[in-house]
Amino acid sequence: MEPNLNIISHLDLGILVQADPFDNATKQVYDACDILKIKDKGLRDYLVMPNKVLRVKIPVKMDNGKIRIFTGFRSQHNNDRGPYKGGIRYFNPEGGVKYMEREVMALSSWMTWKCAVVDIPLGGAKGGVFVNPKTEKISNAELERITRRFAFMISEIIGPEKDIPAPDVYTTGKEMTQIMDTFSKLHGNKSVPGVITGKPIPMGGSLARNVATGLGNAYCIREAAKIIKLKLKGAKVVLQGFGNASTFSGIYLEKMGAKVIAASDSKGSIIVPNGFKTEKLMAHKNKKGTVLGFQGSKKISTEQLLTTKCDVLVPAALENQITAKIAKNLKCKIIGEAANGPTLPEADPIIYKKKIIVVPDILANSGGVCISYLEWVQNNMGYYWTFDEVAKKMEKNITKGFRDTYDLSKKHKIDMRKAAMVLAVERVVEAFNLKGIWP
Ligand code: NAD
Predict the structure, then answer these.
(1) 385 alpha carbon – ligand 1 mean position (Å)
(2) Which atom of ligand 1 is nearest to the CA of 340?
(3) DSSP assigned state of 159
(4) Cβ density class 338-358: b for 16+ within 10 Å, e for less
(5) 126 is catalytic
(6) For residue 185, how far is its CA from the centre of ligand 1 (angstroms)?
(7) Between 244-255 and 278-288, two packed helices, what is the crossing angle to 10 degrees?
(8) What is the pLDDT of residues 208-262, one digit of tens each?
(9) What structural domains does the chain harbor?
(10) Are 186 and 364 contacting, i.e. CB atoms less than 8 angstroms apart?
(11) Other Cβ atoms within 10 Å of 392 Cβ, number
(12) What radius of gyration, in Å, describes the C-alpha atoms of the chain?
């Protein structure tokens, strides 16, 4: 079914740009509603629309004494299952400020479904400031003023029981600490570590957060392997992207017996047919700044990397990597989508037909939000768990999320991506029906 354009015009968001991310998010929700036979237009629109989209002006005195105005957003999509949760990014997408608003709305929707699929009691949100600290000349002091003013502007709608932000594109534990401190100062200097997650450990961060996404993805791949009776011992793994999500996917898959044979980064792709240790490639990349030139490796193209004969493919770089053309040539048995949106919708039916089992992004990379949730729990109780305790709790949520998704995919004869959305929408609708509408 077509996205509901009335909703879009109702928000008066101006020109629609091509490949509008909120249209994509809308379509995914409507598709899940169709499978669940949710026909009530009001309920369908309720599930699509964010509850609140706050757009704020951020005036900042720059180092040269001049004032510069930045724009920031916080989109709170749904809190039927618990407080809103989602990152804050500092970014300047090509489509400009209007596009960014649509993007954070879409991303806030995906956070709702991501939390629901692994059954953590949180809702979905996303925020951002239209600024790119990597490409613009912004000093540390200016960035801190942007961060603190943005925190002030959204302070009324965030809080440990309301909305708990986290790091995202080009934000780190440093910004999270500044947001926590600003929020604390605005609330009588109370200690409120639970207002934000992704904090450094001394500031109340959680152990295992740094490895969470890769570890969660490895758990999902292990469960998928059980289903297709693939032995992980000796299984061949290809990693696209060689950053946080992929290296920890590689390291934990190795611990389960698998062998990484190829990897890539923004500079190129390599293959070592007999395999290598992820940590060795990490050491090489730390020294040389790229995976290229790794001992015993051969340079290959991106297409060759993605279509290498292997057991497990981990796309962990960018969105829109697996096109219909790539899908036709895939030679893997499992895809663990560590990246957000690596597969184009046109590729999904091809992959399904080839009986490749896909762990969709909202499930495969939910380890990050699972451990963010556990960070928030630890902050709220003021008691901290060991690495193993945190990892074990995350494993429980993720493996159950995987099983529930797989069971639904069999029940409705749909692919895992659709099944994950159906599961998530079903859970949010259940909460909505229990609460009803007030006033
Ligand atoms: P990162 O910055 O640590 O690593 C990204 C890697 O991708 C880098 O090695 C970079 O060189 C590589 N890359 C960039 N362009 C490339 C290209 N064209 N071809 C091949 N490689 C390319 O980022 P990350 O945190 O690992 O995130 C990777 C993906 O995982 C993103 O889609 C992100 O949204 C998603 N994700 C990450 C987390 C997390 O906790 N890290 C959580 C959820 C989702």
Answers:
(1) 28
(2) 32
(3) B
(4) bbbbbbbeebbebbbeeebbb
(5) yes
(6) 34
(7) 150
(8) 999 999 999 999 999 999 999 999 999 999 999 999 999 999 999 999 999 999 9
(9) 49-191 (3.40.50.10860), 211-364 (3.40.50.720)
(10) no
(11) 12
(12) 21
